[in-house]
Amino acid sequence: MKGSLKTGRSKRSIGWYLAHDWQLWVMLLPAVVYIFIFCYIPMYGAQLAFREYSFETGITGGKWVGFKYFEQYFTSSMFGTTLKNTFTISATSILLGFPAPIVLALIINQIRSSKWKRTVQTTVYIPYFISTVVMVSMLNVLFAKKGGVLSDFMKTIGLVSPKANLLGQAKYFVGMYVGSGIWQSMGWNSIIYIAALSSVDTQLYDAAKIDGANRWQRVVHIEFPVLVPTIMILLIMNMGGILNVGFDKVFLMQNTLNLSASQVISTYVYDVGVKSSQFSFGTAVGLFTNVVNFVFLLTANWVSKKVTGSGLM
Asked: pLDDT tens for residues 95-116?
């Protein structure tokens, strides 16, 4: 009986599943169409990285030059600078920014008053809805060299030099970028961890209390293990975009004084590929970035499977 049931299930075609669960497929259709239009169709233009583009011949009419533009980028003076700046900003963001929402979720989960808990959650979510342009404008006001409230405060307590220009010196750029990013996104990114913590069986807390476990021990032995699968999945996804430093925020914070630290791959592609109309060269640089991100994604997924037994693929 079981064998015949298993055989019957194995013979079901894709058409059967489409007809049986058509409501779910209809709900999924807009997302599939969106991804196809905006993610897959543009891949057609990737061939531009291997051709000499001209406005007369278009994307497919240019002369095939192979890896010419990749070699041009690898041998240019900006290759090391842009790669180092991009990796430094992205790695620092992951190293400092990734654990922040986890810690925040664990702290919020310790709040027993539902009213106070909702107040804290709403407060930490609000910065996420501030646009990038407004965020950078706030940084320019609060951390101005003269008259900036936060910059003057940091100078007063000795965190930075009295002559420091937090927005105009290269050594402060990474800290300003990563710190403001953590403040803006930490609350919103904690939502998924708070949701995972809500699935913890309350009987585990009662049993731990009976066994004499303190609050820290309950966090370590009950709450954190629940978060591990979610943490690994999100970490893999973050590693898959390690060279995708946000263009808009970097571009808005960039100036001639901090250019040595703020010139990342995305802004370099804009300067060379768009402003200088070197579209083939810009496409080659962007394609190189995506290949590196894909390698990091596969590596992180492999490590996750070896360590935790779970991954994206």
From this structure: 999 999 999 999 998 888 888 9
Question: In the chain, where are the structural domains located?
Answer: 2-35, 69-130+164-307
Long-range pairs of 133-141 with CB within 8 A, sequence gap ≥ 24: 133/252, 135/180, 135/184, 135/249, 136/249, 136/252, 136/253, 139/167, 139/176, 139/180, 139/253, 140/167
Report residue 17: phi and psi, to 5°: -65, -35
pTM exceeds 0.85: no
Rounded CA separation 100/278 (Å): 40
CATH class of the domain comprising 69-130+164-307 = mainly alpha
CA angle 267/273/277 to nearest 5° reads 140
Separation of alpha carbons 124 and 195, rounded Å? 16
CB 197 within 8 A of CB 226: yes
What span, in angstroms and rounded, lies between the C-alpha atoms of 90 and 163?
A: 28
Pull the structure tokens for residue 152: 């003057």
